[in-house]
Design brief:
two-stranded antiparallel ribbon, 48 residues, 38% strand, three-stranded antiparallel beta sheet, binds zinc ion, 0% helix
Length: 48
């Protein structure tokens, strides 16, 4: 809820606001929809 919330890729350090169009999304049936880094393709992201 705080302003300035950012989601960061733990693999390459890419940052963008959560839910931003900058992020890709990938369907992961057991887990639902994951956010995917557009730079390196990792789904290992963390919301700060
Ligand atoms: Zn990345």
């Amino acid at each position: 809820m705080s302003l300035g919330t950012v989601q960061r890729c733990l693999e390459c350090g890419f940052e963008a606001p959560p839910g931003s169009d900058a992020w890709s999304r990938v369907e992961h049936p057991p887990l639902g929809t994951l956010t995917q880094c557009p730079e390196c393709g990792s789904t290992n992201t963390h919301t700060l």
